[in-house]
Amino acid sequence: MALGKATAVGCANIAFIKYWGRRDNSLRLPLNSSISMNLDRATTITTVAFDAALKADQVIIEGADRADQATRRVSEHLDRVRALGRIDARARAMSRNSFPTGAGIASSASGFAALTVAACAAAGLEMDERALTILARQGSGSACRSIPSGFVEWHTADTSEGSYAEQIAPPDHWDLCDLIAVVQTEHKKVGSSKGHELVGPSPFASARLAEAERALPLVREAIRNRDFGTLGEETEQEAIRMHCVAMTSRPSLLYWSPETVRIMHTVRGWREAGLPVCFTIDAGANVHVLCQEQDAALLDARLRDLPGVLDVIANRPGPGTYLTDAHLF
Ligand code: DP6
Fold this sequence. Notes:
Low-confidence stretches: none
Strand content: 25-35%
Largest sheet: 8 strands, mixed
Bound molecules: ligand DP6
């Protein structure tokens, strides 16, 4: 069979109900279901070409030919695609992010979503959206939520087939904005992949799980009803719960910097003064400030004025992962 070349673009996503901890580490089955929004300004473009002449996979991320942990994870994911397509050929995979390298924005969701869609197309595999989410999930859990467009829920399950992601609402359903206040650009010491494995010893892990399950339908309905009050309240609480678990893991993970905490206080001050705004924080120090389009320009300007804010990346609800002809090689 002649193997092709394919290129895909995937968005990062921000979770309102977080994925934090797994019931199965090798299959990446999460402890709880999660809900997120795709971010249109934080994308990864990836080209994959299988080539029988290659002796090993060649992985080029942001122009660097790397032989490290990230490359191994990409190769393992290509193995999953090779197994599905019954092919032996090694591949060349090249990817580039739309956001500045090392901006402290998670690239594993956009990266593994784009890799999954590009590699499957290059291998000639015909897969529906659900199957693509199941495959992407095994590369990076949060990547499965970047396959469908807009607002997405990822279901927890005891089986691989049961743990897929699906759309709750399309991107144009709600003009929600995620203003990412970038306060830290270096790589965090303990990334989320490892963080998931440290959840067990936290005395708050089971309480957070129960609360995430309680909040899940509220967040789903808040999205459907464009109810910012409920979305903001539940999203902020969930972020704090996730970080309580991270802080009480062993070893303890403290992702917040002094700037993070200052922005949390500032956002609450703005809300008390009447602005519909809230925050959420992933496994890093940067703060995702959520608001609606009518307040986005004002909040963007106010965030840029805060001490310690290096950049603000303004995101609207993004598309699902899609194929393009704009190959990188
Ligand atoms: C804090 O998807 O990066 O962003 O499955 O090991 O690749 P792996 O983990 P990853 O974890 C994301 C954690 C989070 C919360 C979330 O996006 O739900």
